[in-house]
Specification:
The complex is a heterodimer of chains A (about 280) and B (about 525). Chain A has helices spanning about 10-15, 20, 25-35, 40-60, 75-80, 80-105, 105-110, 115-150, 170-195, 200-215, 225-230, 235-240, 255-280. Chain A is mostly helical and about 280 residues long. Helices cover about 35% and strands about 25% of the residues of chain B. The chains are: A mainly alpha (about 280), B alpha+beta (about 525).
């Protein structure tokens, strides 16, 4: 993260021309905070490594013996790591705000930049940009791992599985959507952490919100309720973006599912903004 | 410096014990005086019970107008299966050629052939389950026929049976779950099998022989409460044929259709008191009218045809309308997440508030501090988990019953194991979280690590994302193996079914699975003690 050296001296220029500062000063301040501690860089690297590794492991475990039909969504399979990577993304986003509360830094931040919504907006923009970059690398790596591993395990073109390629529309949509999924998870986590403030509790709330719905779904035998969970739980809805086959039988369309997650993220950020404005730091 | 001038501090035994008690007391005081942790523990109990109630309440409701004990399946109402002597749901449907046997006695027969009919491989048997199935010859692996001594003809009665099977040789089976292997190999006119059952009080012994003179004891079973007059005779039955397509994620029951088998018996001989004068044939069970079969007797030869199974019912298969107690414990995951957060904060909050320095100054033996913390958090979460699991199981069962949903009965020791095991799972996970929190010192990292290693393998393994082999391995070697304590129905070797994580079957035995989590917790705790001693606070 340290290679990006900011141009000029926006801190000083901000002091001189406060009316022109807009979001630039908060952005610069947040960027300095993020890049001068080791944590975020490690977490982003961890997101990439974990996503690619879990995706590659899941792909490596798959077999399609010749002579059998394999109704496997290979794109979704190679993107399995996103389910793991999202946990690290969530931690990154939670720490971006709760870390300030635990050290008391938030008071300095808000004293320096009294426009609280701008602080949150700057954090959201930065986190989103960082996760977008790391997520793109992670997802590209996962697709590449699938491209390399799948043909060796029986998923060959002769079997009806062409090479994983981003030139194929649905695969591109699944891959790009997975990157956006990670970004939205980060924004959702940031919003929740701004409301909750405590690191441990915020992490628990975010991971519970994400992971509980796929766990309890098999236990809910009532079709009405399981349909609701599949459509509106953030992880289930958001991950429909990864499907490339059987789109007609999905409970919600891929982009619709991602839209549901976006609504969750927007609601969390809104709640975070309000909490930040109303509560004492 | 000479010896004797320095006297190392040597606390006596009493002080040592008092020391640990006071550390324990200090940690307990810390826990109970932080309002957030106490409220969090109560929240953990409430979400565990609440989600269980949600799962039970959101389960399929009963058939309209038929009352309790019924549930809606794919096409209509399904009849609750009978309950066997062990307390589990059983299927008990076979063709029985019987006579009463008063008191002790024995029955011997030779079986010369076992043949059968299967439904067509590519579609359903025409005309539904009641139609005669005259489709293609063949046997399902557990098609069975032989001798049976049964407490009665009511489905779910106690029994012991000596049988030949299609692919599993001679077996002695009793009370639905018992299964002992005898001679291997298939039966044919060229290699017939001789079977014998001997009753003496509650004890029944099975023998097999290849020639009728050299007999081998296969096993002895005790059937508690067998009436003095039992029904004994010949039987044949054949479980449903299943097209199991081993697909990704575990496999699917493609088509399930009844099959039937036919056995030919001769050289029937008996000893003891058999008050009836003739054999009576009939279908046992067939509550849904789907049983098929018959028998023919001529010149000492009996030809018996049957369809069904005498075996435990395996839950979680395709089209299963019932739920298991496991589903009522689904809230464990939510409670677990709350408990992990609290247990992590129990140590990371000390680092954040610098209280750890006071703690370690007051009791410099650091391993002891961590042990006290582990005991306090383990005990508190065990009690909370026990209350939550017991309440979830009891209240959800009531709710499911009130809604008319069918819940598979489990024997009470199994239910007890599931409740106590869930409490232990939560407590051990809390200790793991405490240890990881001590190692990492950071709340976010510790909470995430523990939640991800426990919950994510379960999601990946049980939600059909991974291939079944990988899912099995995940649930063997990760802390998620501990969820095996919540498995309601055991895996039966004598029932063909899909046993995979996504149908509720874990690769490890219940306590072995919990032991995996305990191993991780012990390892983490050991590392935490080492790090706590080495690093500055």
């Amino acid at each position: 993260m340290s290679q990006a050296v900011p141009a000029g001296q926006p801190g000083l220029s901000g002091l001189r021309r406060p009316e022109l500062a807009g979001l630039r000063d908060p952005l610069h301040a947040e960027w300095t905070k993020l890049r001068t501690v080791a944590g975020p860089a490690w977490l982003l690297a961890g997101t990439i490594a974990a996503t690619v590794a879990v995706g590659a492991a899941a792909t490596a475990a798959a077999r399609c013996p010749s002579g059998t039909a394999c109704p496997v969504d290979t794109t979704k399979l190679s993107l399995t790591g996103v389910q793991f990577g999202q946990a690290i993304v969530a931690v990154l986003a939670v720490l971006a705000i709760s870390g300030e509360y635990s050290t008391g830094m938030i008071r300095i931040t808000l004293a320096a930049m009294p426009r609280r919504s701008a602080v949150l907006a700057a954090k959201a923009v930065l986190i989103a940009a960082l996760v977008l970059a790391a997520g793109a690398i992670a997802v590209a790596g996962s697709v590449l791992a699938g491209r390399i591993l799948l043909p060796g395990h029986g998923f060959t073109a002769a079997h009806g599985f062409p090479l994983e390629s981003l030139a194929y529309g649905p695969t591109l949509r699944a891959a790009a959507g997975s990157v956006l999924y990670l970004v939205l998870i980060a924004l959702l986590s940031l919003g929740i952490a701004t409301v909750v403030r405590d690191t441990a509790v915020a992490t628990g709330v975010v991971l519970g919100l994400l992971y509980l719905s796929p766990v309890i779904l098999p236990a809910v035998t009532n079709p009405v309720w399981s349909h609701r969970l599949e459509r509106y739980a953030p992880m289930n809805a958001g991950l429909t973006i990864q499907h490339t086959i059987g789109l007609r039988s999905l409970p919600i369309s891929p982009w619709g599912g991602l839209g549901v997650l976006a609504a969750w993220a927007a609601a969390a950020l809104l709640a975070g903004g309000l909490a930040l404005r109303w509560h004492d730091a | 410096m000479t010896a004797g001038t320095v006297t190392p501090y040597q606390p006596d035994q009493q002080a040592e014990r008092d020391g640990f008690w006071s550390v324990l007391h200090a940690e307990w005081t810390k826990f109970r005086t932080v309002r957030g942790w106490v409220i969090g523990t109560i929240v953990a109990v409430l979400v565990t019970v609440g989600l269980g109630l949600f799962a039970a309440g959101a389960s399929s409701s009963s058939c309209q107008g038929t009352g309790g004990g019924q549930a809606r399946s794919g096409q209509g109402c399904f009849t609750a299966p009978p309950v066997g002597p062990g307390g589990e749901a059983v299927s008990d449907s076979f063709y029985f050629v019987r006579q009463p046997l008063a008191g002790n006695g024995s029955i011997t027969v030779r079986i010369t052939s076992l043949t059968g009919l299967l439904p067509p491989a590519n579609g359903n048997a025409p005309g539904g389950p009641n139609a005669p199935i005259d489709t293609r010859p063949g046997l399902v692996p557990w098609a069975k026929a032989g001798l049976i001594i049964s407490g009665g003809t009511t489905p779910g009665s106690a029994y012991a049976a000596m049988m030949v099977t299609a692919d599993h040789g001679v077996r002695l089976q009793d009370d639905y779950t018992g299964d002992t292997a005898g001679q291997p190999g298939a039966v044919s006119p060229a290699s017939p099998r001789w079977l014998r059952l001997t009753r003496s009080g509650d004890t029944i012994t099975g023998y097999d022989s290849a020639d009728g003179t050299h007999w081998t004891g296969v096993g002895t079973v005790h059937l508690a409460g067998l009436p003095s007059t039992v029904q004994a005779g010949l039987f044949a039955t054949s479980p449903a044929w299943q097209a199991i397509s081993q697909n990704f994620g575990g496999g699917e029951n493609g088509m399930v259709a009844p099959s039937q088998d036919t056995a030919v018996f001769d050289h029937l001989s008996r000893s003891g008191t058999w008050p009836a004068s003739a054999w009576a044939g009939g279908i046992v069970d067939a509550a849904d009218g789907s049983g098929a079969g018959g028998y023919h007797q001529a010149a000492g030869r009996f030809t018996v045809t049957g369809s069904g199974d005498i075996a435990p019912v395996v839950s979680g298969q395709a089209g299963d309308a019932g739920t298991t107690v496991t589903q009522h414990l689904i809230g464990t995951f939510a409670g677990l997440i709350v408990v992990i957060v609290i247990a992590t904060m129990f140590i990371t909050a000390e680092y954040r508030r610098r209280l750890i320095r006071v703690t370690l100054t007051a009791s410099p033996r650091r391993g002891r501090v961590l042990a006290a913390k582990a005991i306090v958090i383990g005990a508190v979460t065990f009690v909370a988990g026990l209350a939550a699991a017991a309440a979830a199981v009891i209240i959800s069962a009531q709710l499911a019953h009130a809604r008319g949903a069918y819940v598979y009965p489990v024997p009470w020791p199994t239910e007890l194991r599931m409740v106590a095991g869930t409490a232990a799972l939560i407590a051990v996970a809390a200790v793991l979280a405490l240890a990881v929190g001590t190692m990492l010192r950071r709340s976010a990292a510790a909470v995430t690590v523990v939640i991800v290693v426990i919950v994510l393998p379960y999601i990946l393994g049980a939600a059909s994302i991974l291939p079944v082999g990988a899912a099995d391995w995940l649930l063997r070697i990760t802390p998620a193996a501990a969820f095996a304590v919540q498995q309601a129905t055991p895996q039966y070797a004598q029932v063909t079914a899909i046993y995979s994580p996504n149908t509720g079957y874990f690769p490890l035995a219940p306590w072995a699975g919990l032991a995996v989590l305990c191993g991780y917790a012990a390892l983490a705790l050991g590392l935490a003690v080492v790090l706590l001693r080495r690093r500055d606070a």
